[in-house]
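Hi team,

Below is the intake form for Antitoxin from Sphingobacterium corticibacterium. Please confirm the fields before the structure is written into the shared record.

FORM ID: S-0412
PROTEIN: Antitoxin
ORGANISM: Sphingobacterium corticibacterium
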Amino acid sequence: MSTKLTLTLEKEVIETAKKYAKERGQSLSEMVENYFKLLTVDTRKIKPKQLSPKIQKLRGIIKTDENIDYKKMLAEELSKKYGL
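The structure came back. Fields below:
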């Protein structure tokens, strides 16, 4: 569910951010949402019941020999994808 959020920012920051988002084929709202997701990746917990049945079936099927910090990897990939 999406909820409206009103932010107060300097006009120049908004204009630059809109241009940046447009160059990447995103809306400013998507860019801000993804940034907040990146900032809060460690504090958000996804519960199995929040996942679709198809995704629930996939959980845990990949095994690795090494300890992987998937949260760090996710943050790095989101940063690469959205240029943060």
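SUMMARY LINE: The chain has one domain: 11-82.

Thanks, M.
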